[in-house]
Amino acid sequence: MIKDLFRKRYHTLPVSETEGKEPEVPAGLWRKCNKCGKAIYTEDVIRNHYICPKCHGYFRVHAYRRVESLADTGTFTEWDRELPFSNPLSFPGYEKKWKDVQARTSLNEAVVTGTAEIQGYKTVLGVMDARFFMGSMGHNVGEKITRAVERATKEHLPVILFTCSGGARMQEGIISLMQMTKTSAALKRHSDAGLLSVIVLTDPTTGGVTASFAMLGDIILAEPNALIGFAGPRVIEQTIRQKLPAGFQRAEFQVEHGFVDAIVKREDMKETLGRILALHQTGKKPISDVNGVSSEDSYADRQDNGGASAWDRVQISRMAERPTGLDYIQELFTDFMELHGDRCFKDDGAVVGGIARFHGLPVTVIAQQKGKNTRDNIVRNFGMPSPDGYRKALRLMKEAEKFGRPVICFVDTPGAFCGLEAEERGQGEAIARNLFELSGLGVPVLSIVIGEGGSGGALAMATANEVWMLENAIYSILSPEGFASILWKDAARAADAAGVMKITAADLLKLGVIEAVIREETPASLETLPVLCQDMDVRIRRFLQTYGSMSRKELADHRYERFRAF
Predict the structure, then answer these.
(1) Does 326 share its domain with 205?
(2) How many domains does the chain have?
(3) Among 42, 73, 137, 178, which is least packed, fewest CB within 10 Å?
């Protein structure tokens, strides 16, 4: 009876063929994990979010069980429960098999759609189920997803879709293929309406689903170790006649290659989705008034009284002890959620970014990131972004524009990465595209140079309404060493070059290249970071008050005129 009840409700764990050889226990209480082969207690698996307690492998979760784990109690309302059977090719035996699967699973198709609340936030929810023709997308699956997205657009609601699919449904041939465009076009209209879509990729997500709506979310999440790809591993191996490397096409592989924002454990999924929905609510909290709040250093011109030479500033700007972009993000903002990848090739560790709150206001924050030790610097490529980093930054900026979020950038790079692979992937085009798009971005953009501002590699994240610098930061056409080598054929004259290049914060304030200098009483460090950020906090609030009231056109025009004046 327990076995029958478990099968009827969950249909999650396979019954081992060797079950009869196990020690005699009540039938149905024990199963053998089909991933590690160890005996597991059924109730332990259920309590553990359908994750093997021995090997931590993820079992597939049925659609209604997934909905139950995500939706606030009593809030899910299913849509399009009954759609008539569709057999566009009159494929022999298809209807009988479809009815058999329907009876066995109590599903009417491979996706369940409807509306629900997740942590109090209303959303449209769609969950695919692999038991129904391996989650393949035929007419009815495409129709249900499209209807759900269309209704979300009409009712101005976000969409969350959980994918689990082997791809197109073979029995429906070319009509199945047409669902790829249909679902993608519906998401385009939803996106054009300024609405949020979140895709969660579960094991497996392949074929036509991957090549359509599954890769079109504003935010793309994945469960650990989920298989994600266009062609399946077996097809690839048969085609290229090579054994694929371990981890190929798994969720972790997709994060590394720029296609997934984050991997989220199943037990954390509801809380993560709730945070995402909260960060995308309309009617955002205004920034608190800063009138009468003093800042030690004003926007007005000031004399540099530090006594340090330009070369001294260069040396200080490069100190390993200086706080990194992530340090400023963690000190100034709350609820930071890092997003990964350029949706093209790679996730570049030299650029970090995501969504956060500043005094309750959702903002997009992006930073060029150096490492704090040799190992970390290798991961971060010493703060030198590749084209993938600039494309990731631009993706996040365009997403910020869609949702009306201000963009705050922290600049700290010796320059864009110069290497064979960077040129092969279009380093110049990536930087140029940032300048092109940022010049017309319809939200406030603020850039703060916290260390080195090296050439076009810095400018690609400093095409802003205002640019500020820390007192010991530098911002230059190239490094003093490079300047001396080009003009004087002597890199040893770098200190002389620094003096004539006008690269310090005080020099650039006088030239009108930047709007403010943030004083460093002593060189910035983790110990002085809270004091620096108190000053920065006041300035950012003032900036957002000033520019937050401008229209999209006014913001773009202001940015255009700022650079037009040089």
Answers:
(1) no
(2) 3
(3) 73
